[in-house]
Amino acid sequence: MSREVTIFTDGACSGNPGPGGWGAVLTFGDHRKELSGGEAATTNNRMELMAAIMALEALTRPCAVHLYTDSNYLKGGVTTWLAGWKRNGWRTADRKPVKNVELWQRLEAATERHEIDWRWVKGHAGDEMNERADLLARQGMAPYLTKRKAAPGA
């Protein structure tokens, strides 16, 4: 795998559940690609997963990936819990169904052809690329936010 790609991902949600968005910044050498999207009714964890899924699915060939996330749910899930969930028939250690199973399965499929180094970054702490991914996530959410109407006479 000769192509080395750095990815920063983030998810956002207004209410949980509520309208949400995801964002990703992919860099390869001097090239940069930004992705974002959203949903009308979702959760912050689903948007964190979607950011990673969409970024990895955007890669057109196998890559060595450094993927940065501020989500302990995403990083812990993919690096620690996923193998056990699969062994347990997509159930947690206490035998409950894994939440967001369809997204975890899609993420697993998106990781198969890449060599990925999952890295945690503290959110909202001034990391330029994490802040950009956060902005993209909020932009992805924006079309799904209901605009509040001003009260008559206001």
Automatic annotation (TrEMBL):
Listed PROSITE patterns: RNASE_H_1
EC annotation from Swiss-Prot or TrEMBL: 3.1.26.4
Cofactor dependency: Mg(2+)
GO cellular component assignments: cytoplasm
Pfam family, one: RNase_H
GO term, biological process aspect, one: DNA replication, removal of RNA primer
Coiled-coil regions listed: none
Localization in the cell: Cytoplasm
Residues annotated for Mg(2+) 1 binding in this entry: D10, E48, D70
Residue intervals of the RNase H type-1 domain: 1-142
Cited InterPro entries: RNase_H (IPR050092), RNaseH-like_sf (IPR012337), RNaseH_domain (IPR002156), RNaseH_sf (IPR036397), RNaseHI (IPR022892)
Similarity comment: family membership: Belongs to the RNase H family.
NCBIfam families associated with the record: PRK00203.1
Protein name from the UniProt record: Ribonuclease H
Gene behind the chain: rnhA
